[in-house]
Amino acid sequence: MDGDRLDEILDRLRDRGGRVTTARRAIISELLRGGGHITAEELTAAVQAAHPDVHTSTVYRCLETLGELGIVEHAHLGHGPAVYHLADDTHQHLVCESCGSVLEVPAEVFAVTDARLRDEFGFTATLGHFAIVGRCAACTGLKSRRRRPTEH
Length: 152
Fold this sequence. Notes:
By secondary structure, this protein is α+β, with helices and mostly antiparallel strands. It folds into 2 domains: about 5-80, Orthogonal Bundle (Arc Repressor Mutant, subunit A); about 90-140, 2-Layer Sandwich (Dna Ligase, domain 1), CATH 3.30.1490.190. The protein has 6 helices and 6 strands, in the order H-H-E-H-H-E-E-E-E-H-E-H. The strands form 2 sheets. Strands 1-3-2 form a 3-stranded antiparallel sheet. Helix 1 crosses helix 2 (about 20-35) and helix 3 (about 40-50) crosses helix 4 (about 55-70). It is globular, with a radius of gyration of 17 Å. About 20% of the residues are buried.
């Protein structure tokens, strides 16, 4: 785990008026360790393995607070439960409806759409909240100039 990144995130938490508690530090550490895209249930199990005194309800409350403070984001990658990742890792998710693979794409890919929504409709989109569903290059037989999808 990257100690410098942990310190930066904890500093950002403090700057936004949040307290650094054992549970919050453990949640952020687990998200760093696992690379994000973890369900609340998986995150709870990982946190409780290291800190058995942290209750399930505490993890859920912390996730909500960390989300409100812009430290953690959640996304819906299909029909399963929401997954969580650190907000400083901005990206969008493309989910293949055939094989279930998930491809992370940089948020900049949707910059034109975001700008158009804002300019034409006065609407500011939170594009990373829901995945874009379609079919991946492997399932369509089309070539991709990007890396292969990853399973989440």
